[in-house]
Design brief:
Structural class of chain B: alpha+beta
Number of strands of chain B: 10
Distance between the termini of chain B: 42 Å
Structural class of chain A: mainly alpha
Oligomer: heterodimer
Number of helices of chain B: 10
Strand order of the largest sheet of chain B: 2-10-4-8-7
Shape of chain B: extended
Strand content of chain A: under 5%
Number of domains of chain A: 2
């Protein structure tokens, strides 16, 4: 009803067999695994172990997931747009004949080797605020609901900077080559080097939390590019009909020009992004940025104990009942049916003074319940 | 029973019975890796801008200085060297082999040029980066004699016509076919300034890309002559003009090295250029120039690099000052909770 009528995204959570249809009907279904068997878990999109983990799931992991997906998708479009637009400006100079700017191998391996790993690392590890702060400020969840990080405005700004960067790449490299005797493939190798370096450094600029894997992947990607071009320029196989890139990088790297351009072009390309980030953070800060600043001096203690701790949320009475519930206890023999508790018949029978022993099949059934959970029926 | 957090955690660990099927704990999978959080505080922004400015401006000035010290003397001659009788019929002039194409001009060099002086020919509106042009070559054939017949992508300059025996052309392709064939002689005070035409091509090209056992064959013997003829007794690895020409340029206006002059040219020296105006650029409105140029560590005379550096450095310093002023006048205190959106507009959450 809420789903169709109010047209909101719905989340349902349940742990029993009777919750399966509700879990399936909602947009996001969460199953609790545990005492009542695994039916709910098998039908659900997410499975957690205890009800109280729901807060973590939503406020911490759900939020981070939204943030990461936004970053990964937008960055992917940006890096490909930049790379392709640089070629696009070249077509104006070729008489629109369709000559490619980059060598075939550069193009093929761009998304596979030279820019692939860093964005995966960001998608895995990026956190805007720590998990404890995420739970302390649940209002941060509104960023996801209002789709703050993937609005058209955000995408347009990234696209604009992509166009700007591609213009820098193409025109800086080609204008400084007007009076040089470098050929097409030398110019394009220079431009491609600048693109790879800039695009990887840009990723570091959008990270909210940088681990050593970020350094390894960004540095590794740039290094992979250099290793590749050293090898590619150094070999000449009998299988190539056209050997355009032979020795190009060695000649390039023997000129001052190469190093001067390598300092200038990425800096010029990232300059505007940097200014934009500075201005945005100062004058139009996001909520998570304020919270980052508020807690910037606190050590991020994300030890396991803290993750499971609920001490800051429970009253002493709640903490006590929680502690009691954690004590080892009898496994429940409920089957999910009403009036189906063990010894039900015998209880009411005993009240009337009739002796009704437990049925053999009932005993056997309950004893085998642990290994063979029954499929629940709809009531 | 009073419960303290320590006993809670004890109970927790006790409650986790052997039935728990937890995944193996690692900091990687639990996202607990050591991380630092980059926060772009105003002080960071201002210092980064200042550093960029302080590095870029001197580098830019050095580049600009070096570029300024380059002496470059361009001389456009495709219009100059067209005889006035043929002003309206340039094609007739250029295609007629009986007309003398020698063109003599005098040039005054206004600054001293120190050796080595590079002599370039510059072509304009010549699309060496056209797709069909770039593709029209065969590097395998250029490299070794055994692949002489490998003329796959060189059409239409792959085989001679059937009347001439349908033989493979070495070197094949339009790039080689359109080899530039203007020649220059430069003299000063009636003394020839020798133009050294050795080592003008990339060493790697000479050693590896163009074979020393490959000789030109059946070259420019068809009906349409596109450019220079090649001496059939010199192997390709020593045909430096061809090697330089075959490094296709990136833009429609480009320069290629013709040779080097190893002596100085003094101030206000009058040099006489003797140009053989053979190459047909009149058909497509191309432009030809002869350029004399010295070089420095930054290359030829190109102010763009220096200007770009100075521009970025200058804007950077301006922004540093601007941010500093803003910081002083309109500071947003770092980590001020009153800027949180739910504190600024209460009730906006729903």
């Amino acid at each position: 009803m809420v789903k169709k009528g109010a047209r909101k995204i719905t989340l349902s959570i349940g742990d029993g067999a009777n919750d399966v249809s509700m879990i399936q009907a909602a947009h996001v279904g969460i199953g609790i695994s545990g005492m009542e068997g695994m039916q709910a878990v098998m039908a659900s999109d997410f499975a957690i172990a205890q009800f109280r983990y729901l807060a973590d799931l939503l406020l911490v992991h759900g939020r981070w997931s939204y943030l990461r997906i936004c970053k990964v998708v937008i960055y992917f479009f940006y890096k490909n747009l930049t790379f392709t637009l640089t070629q696009f400006w070249f077509t104006f100079q070729t008489g629109f004949s369709g000559q490619r700017f980059y060598d075939d191998w550069f193009q093929s391996l761009y998304n596979v080797i030279f820019t692939a790993l860093p964005v995966i690392i960001v998608g895995l590890f990026d956190k805007d605020v720590s998990s404890s702060l995420s739970k302390k400020y649940p209002e941060l969840y509104m960023e996801g609901i209002k789709n703050v990080f993937f609005k058209w405005k955000v995408v347009a700004i990234w696209a604009f900077f992509s166009v700007y960067q591609s213009l820098i790449f193409f025109y800086f490299v080609s204008t400084t080559n007007l009076r040089k005797i470098f050929g097409l493939w030398d110019v394009s190798t220079m431009a491609f080097t600048c693109v790879v370096i800039t695009v990887n450094l840009r990723l570091l600029m959008i990270c909210n939390s940088i681990t050593r894997w970020h350094y390894i992947s960004v540095g590794g990607s740039i290094l992979a590019w250099f290793i590749f071009i050293f090898i590619y320029s150094g070999i000449s196989t009998p299988y190539d009909r056209q050997e355009n890139i032979y020795f190009v990088i060695y000649v390039l790297m023997s000129t001052f020009y190469f190093y001067i351009m390598l300092l200038l072009v990425p800096a010029a390309a990232l300059f505007c992004d940097f200014v934009y980030q500075g201005v945005q953070r100062w004058f139009f800060p996001y909520d998570y940025q304020i919270i980052q600043e508020m807690h910037r001096d606190e050590v991020d203690n994300t030890g396991r104990a803290q993750l499971l701790e609920v001490g800051n949320q429970l009253t002493p009475a709640e903490a006590r009942s929680y502690a009691i519930s954690q004590l080892p206890r009898e496994l429940s023999k409920h089957t999910g049916f009403a009036f189906d508790s063990p010894g039900y018949e015998s209880f009411f029978a005993a009240q009337l003074g009739v002796y009704a022993p437990p049925k053999a099949w009932d005993v056997a059934r309950r004893a085998s319940m642990r290994s063979k959970p029954k499929i629940g029926h709809k009531k | 029973m009073s419960v303290e957090s320590s006993s809670t955690s004890v109970a927790v660990t006790d409650g986790q019975s052997k039935n728990f099927r937890k995944p193996k704990y690692s900091r990687f999978s639990q996202q607990e890796l050591d991380a630092w959080q980059p926060i772009l505080t105003p002080s960071w922004a201002i210092s980064i801008f200042t550093v960029i400015g302080l590095i870029f401006i001197p580098v830019g000035l050095a580049s600009l200085f070096a570029s300024e010290s380059v002496v470059e003397v361009p001389f456009r001659y495709d219009d100059e060297c067209l005889p006035p009788d043929y002003k309206d019929d340039a094609l007739e002039y250029i295609q007629n082999d009986n007309i003398n194409k020698t063109c003599t001009r005098n040039l005054t060099i206004k600054n001293k040029m120190k050796a080595p002086i590079y002599v370039y020919y510059q072509l304009g509106n010549f699309y060496q980066n056209h797709r069909r042009y770039v593709k029209s070559r065969d590097d395998k054939q250029l490299r070794n004699k055994a692949s002489e017949n490998d003329v796959g992508s060189c059409s239409p300059e792959d085989y001679t016509s059937t009347e001439l025996g349908h033989k493979p052309i070495v070197p094949c392709g339009i790039i080689a076919w359109s080899l530039f064939n203007d020649t220059y002689r430069i003299s000063s005070n009636n003394k020839d300034l020798v133009i050294n035409k050795k080592n003008i091509a990339w060493k790697s090209d000479q050693l590896a890309k163009f074979g020393s056992d490959v000789y030109p064959k059946n070259f420019q013997i068809g009906g349409l002559i596109g450019g220079a003829r090649l001496n059939e007794s010199i192997p390709l690895s020593e045909q430096e003009d061809l090697i330089v020409w075959m490094r296709t340029a990136a833009l429609p206006t480009f320069r290629k090295l013709y040779g080097k002059i190893e002596t100085d040219i003094e101030v206000n020296e009058e040099v006489m250029l003797v140009i053989e105006n053979n190459y047909n650029t009149y058909e497509f409105g191309g432009r030809k120039s002869l350029v004399l140029s010295t070089t420095t560590w930054v290359g030829g005379r190109n102010h763009f690099l220096g200007m770009a550096y100075i521009l970025i450095g200058g804007v950077s310093l301006l922004l540093a000052v601007g941010f500093l002023l803003l910081y002083v006048m309109q500071p947003r205190p770092l980590g001020d909770p009153s800027y949180l959106s739910w504190n600024r507009n209460p009730g906006s959450l729903r």
